[in-house]
Amino acid sequence: MLATPAPSVPDLRAQFEGVLARLTSEEAQHVSADTMERRLLSQVLALGRALFALFLARRAAAAEGRTHSGPDGVERPYHDERARPYLSIFGRVVFARPYFYGRGRGGTAPVDGALSLPPTVCSDLVRETAEELGMEEAYHKGLGVLRRLLGLALSTRTLQEQVAEDAPEVEAFYAQQAPPPAEEEAAILVLQADGKGVPILRPLTAVAGTPAPLRLGKGQKRGGKKEAMLTAVYTIAPVVRTPEEVVESLFRAPSEERGAGDAEREAPRHKRLWATLAGKDAALDEAAAQVARRDGPRPHRARRPDRRESGAPGAGARALPRRPPDPGPDPRHRVPVGRGQRAAR
């Protein structure tokens, strides 16, 4: 594997001057904005790839030496130069770095640890971008965007393996995040939940020793649907409306504009979306945990004596906890709650 030639600083300056000269040339006065934008993108990516190759080459040269003592305290002599591919956002770069090896002591390339290089070829930025695109669209469509704009060629299998490797870390990542600051929250805490059938492709494999059918029968399908639960937790400021305004809003077409007298609605604050295929209970449990973190501790309520302890009529049945008297909501604050929605107070 041949390393990408590292350009010198004068070469990089000449390359930049070439881009600048083409931008200010007479020809540039007669091309469209779209043509120039596409040219500049390819030229800037090529310049970025050359700059990044120089950066890697200089870091590798700084790690050269006769021996290397690693974190384990084992000293290993210099063995040779070994090339490593790296798929950056600017393109593929191959750089050679010193490799230290000792018989019975193993080998190591200290530059990899100093640069925090990932174990795979893809950089963290490319991996993060590909996975975000894969969450929004089908894998091949998201990778098509990277290929068209940046010229990066990744296979759908690579993206599938990366998502499978990173998925177990999602819950731990969000669990360590602190709730939003209380001063940034609004008065109403909202929890929403909804389900959606997601097509699931299942391979037709043999079940209980029965060979898989060569042709599907009547009513058989190659895949099925599984319910995906989506929950949303956010806070929002109340909107004071009269009963007439509430009724009028129920019969207003979505395309109609709001009236001049309508109150302005604030956007939701710190909205957190969570989707899972683990079922309704798992989705609501996770949402309830988020509500508890953002709603804060509840005030302590005194325990009401059990009927069996007080000797009141109907002893033997456990009394329900007494709720504080509810004066009733202000009519201006009554808002319809849609299906699958509930407000957490």
Please explain how this structure is put together.
The chain has 345 residues and is α+β, with helices and mostly antiparallel strands. 35% of the residues lie in helices and 21% in strands. The protein contains ten helices and eight strands. The chain has helices at 9-23, 33-62, 110-114, 124-136, 139-150, 156-166, 170-175, 243-250, 280-295, 307-310; strands spanning 67-69, 75-88, 91-102, 106-108, 188-201, 223-236, 269-276, 341-344. Strands 1-2-3-4 form a four-stranded antiparallel β-sheet, with helices on one face. A four-stranded antiparallel β-sheet has the order 7-6-5-8, with helices on one face.
- Runs in which pLDDT lies below 50 for 5 or more consecutive residues are 299-320, 329-345
Shape field: extended
Mean pLDDT over the residues: 79
**What is the strand tally?**
8
Percent range for β-strand residues? 15-25%
* Count of alpha/pi helices: 10
Calculate Rg over CA atoms.
31 Å
How do the SSEs run, as a string of H and E? Answer: HHEEEEHHHHHEEHEHHE
Which strands sit side by side, in order, in the main sheet?
1-2-3-4
For the biggest sheet, the summary is:
4 strands, antiparallel
End-to-end distance, in Å?
62 Å
